[in-house]
Amino acid sequence: MTLAAGEARGMRRVMLGATTAWLAVFTLAPFLIVLAISLVEARFGVPPYEPLFAWSKGLWPVFNGTLANYATLGSDPLYLEAFASSLRIAATSALITLIVAYPMAYAIARARAELRFGLLMLIILPFWTSFLIRVYAWMGLLNSNGLINALLIKLGVINEPLTLLNTEFAVHLGIVYSYLPFMVLPIYAVLERMDWTLLEAAEDLGARPFSAFRRVTLPLSLPGIVAGWLLVFIPALGEFIIPDLLGGPGTLMLGHVLWTEFFSNHDWPLASALAVSLLVMVLVPAAFLYRVLRRAEVAS
Amino acid sequence: MDRPTEGAPPVIRIEGVAKSFGAVPAVAGVSLDIARGDFFCLVGASGSGKTTLLRLIAGFERPDTGRIVIDGEDMTSRPPYARPVNMMFQSYALFPHLTVADNVGFGLEEERRPRTEIRERVAAALDLFDMGGLAARKPHQLSGGQRQRVALARALVKNPKILLLDEPLAALDKKLREKAQLELVALRERVGITFVMVTHDQEEAMSMATHIALMRDGALCQVGTPRQLYDAPQSRFAADFFGVANLFEGRRSGNAVECAEAAATLVVDGGAGEGEVAVMVRPEQMMVSRERPARANVLPAALTNIVFLGNASICHFTLPGGKAVQARLSPTDLAALGALSAGDQVYLSFDPAAARVLAS
Amino acid sequence: MTGRRSIALLSVLGFGYAFLYLPIAILIVYSFNDSRLVTVWSHASLRWYAALLDNDQMLDAAWLSLRVAAVSATLSVALGTAAAFALQRLRPFFADRGYEALVMIPLIVPEVLIGLSLLLLFVVLGNAIGWPSERGALTITLAHASFGTAYATVVIRARLSQLDPSLDEAAAILGATPWRAFRRVTLPLLMPAIAAGWLLAFTLSLDDVVVASFVTGPGASTLPIVVFSSVRLGVSPQINSLGTLIVVFVSCLILAATLITRPGDRGKV
Known about the structure:
heterotrimer, A: MetI-like fold, 13 helices, C: mainly alpha, MetI-like fold, 11 helices, 0% strand
């Protein structure tokens, strides 16, 4: 028994130790480094930033930290615009996703029980099949000589091709398309658990179907709606591929600006400051999401 | 189906209603009148169609054929929200996101009543059930009995012509259930409207109902008062469903039934008739004596065992041919027989007036 | 349910699935188009698939991607199993909420942030201890394992939470030491989740452009990096056929993963 207890302790140590070491090096440390580099100034050289502490003079290291990068982010209209339009695009496209996803989640939840798993799989499957290729597929459709324009001209709806690609419309479309499963799943999960006799009770008490939906189904699916909205909003906020491929140069989104700052302007400290801001913007709704999901779990 | 009709028109008239789900018939051609002010119970085993019939009255299901008339108006194709009927669900179906007061006020808000009127009527309905203090609670903060009363208040606050109750007491424990039975009967007297209740529990139906409809395989088996169903069942199924029945199979000619399994000719009351029948005798009608009594319908039997119930004892006997028979004896009757033990030979007998003849 | 309502729900699903699948279906159809113009149909051919086979750059990138994905997925499930145990069974004495957040953080943080932070980690480590000496396949593999672990943990932990802890006790009573009980009881029961987690991490690695672009070095281009730089220049028929192959390949993997995990946790992926 004591031998076994010792072995159990050993196993415990190995598993906790491996996990902790890995998390420390590959999750915690990188974020701390980003935070540190966001506090120094850029320079020409390798690496292209000043050290946070310099040992050049005297006994004590000199602290080189500065909030200059954050000041730049807070004053340059380009970055302010990027913050604003990221929030706006992420929020509205999450809303559009909700409008598309809710009826689908509802229809699946009301489908015959043996069909639901398959219908749900059909929602999830595209999500795992190459994000890049799926966004790329829309490039071919939205092109000025793409299929949608060709179809509309053929039907006589328009004479000249519409500019669909490289617009904010295309970015919204791309986000709705790519993140639809994130919205359908939590709403479905709530609706699937719902007691449908509540709707009968509402109808029995005089509520017409729409009123019963508004007063019973909708409030009861609110946790799913909030969770789904956040699950789309959060990744959309830092999205890079969609604005890059579908949005064109006119679309300013933080993920894209960060990429440009890093790869084109080689300003690592400013990119880091953007990363920290983005992290904060993501963590606030994420903490809220965590609470919503936990409460839903407790309630069920 | 031929229960005595009062002069007043029925509050619910069901005419030849049938409903199938896919290929499975749930209700098969039911015609039924329910009188105003009745406490009407639909009883039957699960799958007998009683719940479907209730849901047809509520409007959750549309009949395939037939009509449903409520208070003189044809309701057959009216949706549930437009019927003067409210339902109390088996699960209570309280809205979990609304307070007790909002649950009760839900239907009044659908009627677009003024706010003050809603508040007053909700308060009055809650007071009726002594629930005034819990108005601000959410359903999950209530006990089972409290939830049941909120569900009742919610269904009654709209002053429906008919209250439908789907197994309203099934979720309560035994003690609470007996109390709630009395409360429901008293409640109906107070509000004066018609109650239609579905239950699978025959004792519950007998103790609460003014009239009972027994259902089987989607059809009505027998309709009548609890007394009629107990004392004068018209079928073996009805006889068995309401309490215990001793059945003696035999061939009837006139007042005599030649019964092979009892090795006797049994004498019954009234009417003439021929053919295969069963004679039904309730255990409490069965008399037991040490000496052979001087009357008709005497069966020698051996005691198998006695089950003591407190206020009575169930005695099990075996006839010489092997048939099992039950008698229910009061403590006084049992004491009058002296000490009994298994194997003792006694005489069972019953009055011809206490026997019912059931056609095969 | 009335007929009208079910027709409405059916058409909702019809439009929804059309929206999800039509773009990919059109991509697949046009990958068999002979024309160089992506939007004009000439006639069916395998021309662009043949061209793909001659494209050494693509083939090299695909081979690199597969190796990176396989190694990082294996690393991910190993660490994911440990992390799932750490979270589910061992209940670390130090702040389990914070611990959980740290495990899950790669699931919600934008890819650009993961890419940048891991690149900076590799740069700082390289300067401080000389390792990794250069960036390339190794750094991409580690980076992919970093987010792959998070996903693998979720899948494995979900399964672990359904296992009856008394199984371990039963094994212990039967004389198994903790390590043997783990190997002979828990691990086999976790195997479907571990396989699913592996496929998930593998797929995610195969699909990643952003993180790989940050942490890669000269000479190491994974398939998504090559595709992405080509796609940025516009639509090309060769990418259509490559996309078709990727979609088919990945769909098969995911279908396999679903079928493996299906018993026991329906609807939970």
